[in-house]
Amino acid sequence: MEYVLFPRSEIHRRISALQSQMGEMDGALLFHAVDMCYFSGTAQDGLMYIPRDGEPVVMIKKSLERAAEESPLEVRPLKNLRNLKSDLAIPGDAKIGLEMDVLPCSFYFKIKKSLDTARFVDVAERIKHIRSVKSDFELGLMRESARILEAVFSSVPDFLEEGMREVDLISRLELVMRS
What we know:
The protein has 9 helices and 6 strands. The protein is an alpha/beta fold. It starts with 7 loop residues before the first helix and ends with a helix.
């Protein structure tokens, strides 16, 4: 199986799903690498802002070039969190969704300081719900993964020898998996 980037249509479908569930929120700020990857196609260190209306922005601390290759979205450098309000044109009275289930307190306080008068709501359950419904693209990846694992487990009798070390069996099975 070759490395597959997320198709642009898949990323846009996911973003649209979140935007349609924002209600009174003006946008959502995502920091968690898993959610970043799900909605942007890259898991580089940074953040993603998804406005209720408009185009999302991915802001990356390092590996900007890689993020731009992986994501079909606009990718900008993230210099610091202090300028988020101006960098993302977030209104002062904005209602912003945050991943409250995984967001470290230190990040929360930095965001609160940066967005001073903004109000924050938890967007975690909405994200979990969106991620729980699998697309044809995701189902295809799951099927391919299952096919690979089936090949690996089917090859166990070919490699298993009495008295062999577990690490030797694992390395042979990993060879099958990677090839």
